[in-house]
Specification:
- It is built from five helices and two strands; from the N terminus they run βαααβαα.
- It is mainly alpha-helical.
- The protein has one domain (about 5-90).
- α1 runs antiparallel to α3.
Amino acid sequence: MNSFKYRFLCLLLLEYEDVLKRDRMALNYTDEEIDDLLDYICTISDKRKIFYLWRPFLKDSKDDLVLEVAVESQSNYIITIMRKILWELSNLVLKC
């Protein structure tokens, strides 16, 4: 049976926090609601550690965090709404 597992790096979570809090007015969320969401992600997630850095690989170095956690966790898929990542990864073996 296939199951969905959310995997992240602490640096990636900090990037989420930065983006969400920077755009919180447009998103109509409070800092407390954002913190609650991030806490929930931490609770349900498989935390990964990266001991190597092979950046820069993607045009936006922050997007490399997504790629690194996928490779380190031996993920079969990357699920993202960021089409630029999918385009840049299209030459890799990962299914995007």
